[in-house]
Amino acid sequence: MDIRKNTREWIRVERTQFNGYELVDLRVWYTDKPGEDGKLCPSRKGVAFNVELLPEIIDALKQLDLALETN
């Protein structure tokens, strides 16, 4: 799943594997040239974590969303 961040960047959420571990990778991807014709390339900006942590991450994001709504 890609979420547009701005005109040249997207946040990509995907399931990956590394050294036998199942991971969730949240990474900023960017176009290698301006405009819609550019090829998407991964940046170093991001985080990967074990899929077993996903429920805790989702819960933390829900709590943050709720806190932002009440402010």
Which SSEs are present, and which pair or pack?
Blueprint: E1 2-4, E2 9-18, E3 21-31, E4 40-50, H1 54-70
Antiparallel strand pairs: 1-2, 2-3, 3-4
Using the coordinates shown, work out and report the CATH topology: Transcriptional Co-activator pc4, Chain A
User: What would you give as the CATH superfamily?
Assistant: Transcriptional Coactivator Pc4, Chain A
Low-confidence sequence ranges? none
Strand order of the largest sheet: 1-2-3-4
Q: For the terminal residues, how far apart are their CA atoms?
A: 29 Å
Q: How much strand?
A: over 45%
Q: What is the name of the CATH class? A: Mainly Beta
Would you summarize the structure shown here?
By secondary structure, the chain is of the alpha+beta class. Helices cover 24% and strands 49% of the residues. It is built from one helix and four strands.
Throw out a few tags for this protein.
single chain; alpha+beta; Transcriptional Co-activator pc4, Chain A; 71 residues; 4 strands; four-stranded antiparallel β-sheet
Describe the structure in your own words.
With 71 residues, the protein is α+β, with helices and mostly antiparallel strands. It has a single domain (2-70), classed as Transcriptional Coactivator Pc4, Chain A (Transcriptional Co-activator pc4, Chain A, Roll), CATH 2.30.31. The chain is 24% helix and 49% strand. The protein is built from 1 helix and 4 strands, in the order ββββα. The protein has a 4-stranded antiparallel beta sheet, with no helix packed on it. The model has no long low-confidence stretch (mean pLDDT 92).
